[in-house]
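Box 3.1. Reading complex inputs
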Amino acid sequence: MKVLPSRSSEWVRPVVSQKPASAIIEIDRVSQVFQTSTRKDHLALSDISLTIEEGAFVSILGPSGCGKSTLLYIVGGFVSPTSGAAKIKGQAITGPGPDRGPVFQEFALFPWKTVLGNVMYGPRQKGVRATEAEAQSRALIEMVGLKGYENFYPKELSGGMKQRVALARTLAYHPEVLLMDEPFGALDAHTRTRLQNDLLNIWERDRKTVLFVTHSVDEAVFLSDKVVMMSKSPGRIRQVIDIDLPRPRRRNELLLDPRYQKYVVDIERMFDESDETGSPS
Amino acid sequence: MMSAAALTRRAAPVLACIGLLAVWQVASLALKNDSFPTAIEAIRAIPDILGDKESLINILASLRRMAIGFGVAVLVSVPLGLLMGRSRAVAAFFNPLLMVIYPVPKAALMPIIMLWLGVGDITKTLVIFLGVSLPVIYHSFEGAKAVEEKMLWSGAAMGLSAAQRLVRIVLPAALPEILTGCRTGLVLALITMITSEMIARQSGAGNILFNALDMGQYDTVFAMIIIVGAMGICLDAIFERIRARLVRWSEPQFDMPLSFS
């Protein structure tokens, strides 16, 4: 296994997109069987193999029920695959760990903690001193645009704000990989767009590896270096598409860019074709 | 200045009490029954009871048993309920046991417990403990079961062990539900306290009440009922204050107007 570049070298990486060489996550012939309520076996994921390179923004795109979230949970270590294995930096994934930070559609904030308390939770758990953790967390809260809301409880925030807190909370313990499970799926269109923009801005600063699950084609193309298209029943990888668009990406430029439009149209067409021939789940 | 609505809201409980006493007074005067003293007679008897050292010792003994029974029950039931809520094996083991015990009136167990442990403090405290345990276990169980899986995953990703997740995520997340159980438990503690003293007289608030009943001192009987009721209201009010403080983060942000207000 190759020695990975140190954290400092990531900072000096040029802004223009480059293919990072080393694989950080390897998914090797993973299958997942669930028992349905009628005690039948349901093949949620069938023989998935995928390599994710360090520093890449990879989206997993597919219709609901294609097992894309399950795949993310397997990488997170929250679910063990029925067969096959997932690895991070060559090590088999056996459970959750702070090297992989999840952001869920449901936010999953700790409602008894304030915004600051939520963001500080990870660093404190890691053993960072309280004053230091607080300073870092305040900076992160400002970065996600929530300065002034440090002492609010989650119930006092809107959905978009909650997801900003969830992102800050995960970034606070410096995971090497961000695992985002339809993070903007519960938000209205306007909020969703704003969060996509802000996520890209934040991501372009330090280019952490991101695995991003979504069912929105625009979202996947806008954000990603690579889109993994999945089909359902059983959940399979249909195609992996490299999105060769310049960074930093700005929405107003990109929406007018014919290359962007072509990616969106092509991917949508491929899904339409599979809908016509695909069997219902 | 308080608004008219706020004033009404403040005054409503007082008015309700006065109304109840008025109905009592009128009913008693109308029925002219020796075993049904008027409200004023009963209220007059209260200072006699509270001024009597012997009675106060009795009441304090009751409260002490109640506090111990309630406290131990909460300390045992909350961890048990939380474990049941997060572990199918633990739930599968304890659920049938609790199902059997739940519908049994705890006071009905008293004669048996008295045979084993005598008529003293231990028996009565144990009965209070049993009465309080079940609702607290049940609500802790339900609260723990309802904790969002993704919240626990988030904690696991931060490196919290299973035990840490139980104490630092399940416990606070389930706290509103746990405290609802404790509040029910507190009322049940008061009820079992009095019934236990009815079955095993010796000391306590129930002892004063039922002795007075035997001797036909009906004003004392009703005065004791008022005192026990007042104790219940005070304990509940104190508990509610503590509860509201602990789970302020989960309460609805604004008082929603009710449909008929």
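In summary: Residues 258-277 of chain A form the longest helix (20 residues).
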